[in-house]
Structures are given as C-alpha cells and as structure tokens.
Design brief:
By secondary structure, the protein is α/β, with parallel strands linked by helices. It is built from 18 helices and 24 strands. Helix content is about 35%, strand content about 20%. Helix 8 crosses helix 9, helix 12 packs across helix 13 and helix 13 runs parallel beside helix 14. It is globular. About 50% of the residues are buried.
C-alpha cells in the first residue's frame, strides 16, 4: 500500500507554488519538481508576517534516530489534511551522513520530502556553493602568506580550515605548503561542509545585505601581536557573495502528498544552531498560516539554540513546540528499563517550560510498540501538564498526524502569543551564559573551564564579542557531556575544553568533550548500497 502511494506522480512545482500563492515574478523553477524563491518577496509590502511558527524537537535520540524528521513532515501533512495553509522549513541533507551510517534525511514512508533522492544528493548545488565560498577564503589566506603577509598574520594561529561535504577522516589534520621552493608549511585540516561557519551564516542571514555583513565579519586568525583578522581585511567578501548568489535563495519542493516544503541550509546541531534558514522561515510566515520547523537533535541542543541564538537574532518567536518521543528511546535511556528512562522525557518537558513555549508531545509509534507502553507515555506527559498524540506519519502520512495537528492548532488558538523568552540576556558574560545553559538546561551542578577555554573566552570578550550568544557543542546522545550517561543525570560537571569564534554567524562556539567536525566513514557505508538503475533513476538512498 505504501509503495503504491509513494509512486504517485509529484505535482508540477508551479502547482506547489500556487498553493502558497507565490507570484510568478518571485519564483524560478529548476526543472519540473523544484525551484527557488527570490528574496524580493520579503520586501513586498503585500506579504506581511502572519503565520505561526511551530518548532519540532525531541527527547534524547538514539544513534538510529527516532523519527523527528518524519514527524515534522507528517505534522505538516496533517495540518494540510485538516485544511490549514502550511509549509515545512527543513534543512538540506549533508552528503557525509547520506554516504555514511545514517543515510538520507528527507523523511520516510508516506512522510517524505520529494524529490528525496535529488534533495539528498547535490540539491541545487547549494552545499557545493557554500564549500566553494569557504575554500576561496582559505585559498586567499595562504596566498596572502605567500605574497608577503602584509597583515602580519601569525601562521600558527590561523583558525580558518578547508571544507568538503563528505565523511573523510584522513583530512582532519593536514599540512599545507605555501610553495615547494619556499620554507613555509603549516598545519590545518578539513571540516565537513555542514560544520562550516558559512553554512551557519547562510542559515542566519536575513538578506543579501546581512549576508555581506556577516561574511565581512568572519575571523580567520590573528596577527602576531594578537589582533583578529577578518575576511574583509583579505578582500574576500565579494568573491564569496558571488559564489553564494543563488545558494541564499530558498528551495521550494513538496511532501509525498503535495504539501509545500522549503528545504534550505543545513548547519550542524551542535557546532552550529542546527535548523533551516531564517530566510525560508520568514518566507513561510508570510505565505502560510503555519510553519513547521525542525530543530537539530533534542531540546537541550536544537531547541535551546533556537531560542537563544536564532530567536534573538531573527526576532522569530515560536508559538508552540512539538516534542517527539518514542517507547524505544525511553527504553534506551533507561538502559533497557522503560520506566527508568522516562526521566529523560520529564527533563525535556522541563527544558521547554523554561522558555515559556506551549508544548505538545508527539509519540512516534513504531510497529512493535505495545499499547501499554504508549499509554504510559501519554499518561506521563499528562501528569506534567503536556498534551500528547500518537504520530503515525511513516505508515499513514497526513492522516496519521491528524490528532497531533489538531492539538497543535488548538494550543495556538488558545494561546496565540505565548510569552516565549530566551534563557539568558546577551548582556551577561560568556561564562555566565555557559553556566546558565549547563545548569538550567543540561542539569549540571557546575562547569569546569580548561585554561585554554578560559583564555579564549577572555580574548573574545576583549575583542568585543562578549555579548554574543553561546553555542555549546556537546554530544547529542546524553543530556550531559558524556554519551554513556543516560536518563536525566544530576550532580555532574560540564567540562568546557575549548572555544572558537564564529563572528560572522554571530555566536561563540563552546566545546565540551571531543567534537568531531570531520566524521569518518564506517567499515560498511551506505555508499555500497547507492546506485543508478538502467533508466537513470537513483536507488538506495
């Protein structure tokens, strides 16, 4: 039944654009199944912000994932099913996970974003454009050193790496030579494109003017006397702007049942803020009554970063949050004991309450779940004042999320302007912000800062970046900084090992534990199952 429905022909992309009433002058089709929306729509006074934003987050995930993307898509389909004008704003997948362990990231079953194979591979060249812009800046850094180093850059303190959108552990640490005839060699490395600061910049920029300002502000290293050097100092901004001219435009596609979907940008959910572009969200809020926006990983990462980074920079305030959970994730958090794992769900409910956002739990149903366990999850949520609904989008599409959609709409109708707020004020010090997140969100009792981390935070403050929000990069598999510490741990210490400055993105990255910015491929990767059949269709993604 599912395979039959999935083979239904997609709508022409112009028909999808008409569902959102996008004028032809603002829409550029890219083939029959996708297109880009022009930024001029945002400055058209006839398109005012009118919609309500719903963020989708989750309890602590397992390595296999618990269906947060499927639930986000099915909620969107469910809202359309009950007659609402809706669009989802989703991240673009990275080739690293697609060819690595996790696979594609466009949903599944009857709740996919289509054309899923194209979205998972090369989609409109956005990632390639971002990688090219990143790498032209890296090339300009080394060219500057080669041609005399007029800015007096310290080669040992250059922080701008290179990037490639593939898992390749061999490129984590490399040595580059300025020229074979000169005595010049320095250490650097590659990060995966989803971890590039330019990816975060594309996702946070409000328009081209803001994009230029952010690219100008990228700090690539310091001078020998300790002053920051920016992309503007290297004259790199214009070239990067040209490479990103089309990547900044949101991509319009559709879900399995023809509901409109924006897919744009793909920043990581720990080293960056982990959500789709602000531009796509702004467009959605002007074109639809409801915008569904997925946040990376669980509420301690993606949701916290949305409220403290994205909301504070964009001014977009969510009207509701959907918290995705599953029976198997609770059993995993309890190390096999379902009842013991429920504390993890309780902690994530409390996290969202701290931001003042009305929350509805989506219990994503898997085939082997028992009615008793599903009812226990619903009762646990109800005891904490949170309404819940079963979500069966994978098997049923929009109708499988009808109850969830109705409960989300009911919450927003009853409370259309909730007093949602960030956790901290930007006026607080960087150390105070980190302590607030650690203690109020993660449940840590204290924070330990290494000498290196404390020195860098002090340096960033002296440079004038002390009022930026913090983006804490830690494991997604635990509320703590130890992936093996499950449930809702208390009485532990968050260990801050390092910090880096993302001045263009507008946040300070705080490293806790060993963050992998260039993953590696597993022994048997998804690449071995991906192919093209004789008709030219991509299979196995």
């Amino acid at each position: 039944m599912i395979s039959t429905l999935m083979q239904k022909a997609l709508l022409p992309i112009q028909a999808v654009a008409r569902k959102l009433e996008i004028p032809e002058k603002y829409f550029e089709p890219w083939g029959s199944q996708s297109g880009k929306v022009k930024l001029e729509l945002l400055s058209d006074p006839s398109f005012k912000r009118r919609g309500k934003l719903i963020i989708v987050t989750a309890t602590t995930p397992t390595a296999a994932g618990e269906g947060k993307t499927v639930t986000s898509i099915s909620l969107t389909q469910g809202l359309a099913h009950i007659g609402k004008k809706v669009v989802i704003t989703s991240r673009e997948p990275s080739l690293g996970p697609v060819f690595g362990l996790k696979g594609g990231a466009a949903g599944g079953g009857l709740s996919q974003i289509e054309p899923s194979a194209k979205i998972n591979l090369h989609f409109h060249g956005d990632f390639h454009a971002i990688a090219s812009a990143h790498n032209v800046l890296a090339a300009l850094v080394d060219a500057h050193l080669f041609h005399g180093n007029d800015l007096h850059l310290d080669p040992e303190r250059i922080t701008w790496p290179r990037t490639m959108d593939m898992n390749d552990r061999a490129l984590r640490r490399i040595a580059v030579s300025l020229d074979s005839k000169k005595d010049g060699r320095r250490q650097t490395g590659f990060v995966i494109t989803a971890a590039s600061e330019i990816m975060a910049i594309i996702a946070l920029a409000k328009d081209r003017k803001d994009l230029r300002k952010r690219l100008d502000s990228i700090v690539i290293g310091v001078t020998r006397d300790g002053r920051p050097v920016s992309a503007r100092d290297l004259g790199a901004t214009g070239g990067m702007m040209a490479l990103l001219a089309e990547a900044i435009l949101p991509n319009l596609v559709q879900t399995t049942d023809g509901t409109p979907a924006f897919v744009h940008a793909g920043p990581f959910g720990n080293i960056a803020h982990g959500t789709s572009s602000v531009i796509s969200q702004e467009m959605g809020l002007r074109l639809a009554d409801y915008v569904v926006n997925e946040c990376g990983f669980a509420s301690d990462l993606g949701a916290e970063k949305y409220f403290d980074i994205v909301m504070q920079q964009s001014g977009i305030t969510p009207a509701a949050a959907v918290l995705v959970t599953t029976v198997q994730s609770m059993r995993s958090q309890g190390e096999g004991d379902f009842e013991r794992g429920l504390s993890n769900l309780g902690q994530h409910i409390e996290i969202l309450k701290k931001f003042g956002v009305p929350t509805i739990a989506a219990i994503n149903r898997f085939p082997n779940d028992s009615a008793a366990d599903l009812n226990r999850l619903a009762a646990y949520c109800a005891d904490r004042g949170v309404a819940s609904a079963l979500s069966e989008g994978f098997a049923k599409g929009g109708p499988g999320a009808k109850e969830l959609a109705e409960k989300v709409v009911d919450s927003i109708v009853k409370n259309p302007a909730p007093p949602v707020h960030p956790l901290y004020s930007l006026e607080e010090s960087l150390v105070e912000k980190i302590q607030r997140v650690a203690q109020n969100i993660y449940g840590a009792s204290r924070v330990y800062f290494s000498e290196q981390a404390r020195a860098k935070l002090q340096q960033f403050t002296e440079w004038g970046y002390g009022k930026l929000p913090v983006c804490i990069a830690k494991t997604q598999y635990s509320l703590s900084d130890d992936p093996k510490r499950l449930g809702a741990p208390t009485g532990w210490t968050l260990n801050v090992t390092n910090a880096s400055l993302s001045a263009g993105a507008g946040f300070v990255v705080v490293i806790s534990g060993n963050m992998m910015l260039m993953p590696g491929l597993p022994k048997v990767s998804r690449a071995s199952s991906i192919d093209v059949d004789d008709s030219g269709a991509i299979i196995g993604v």
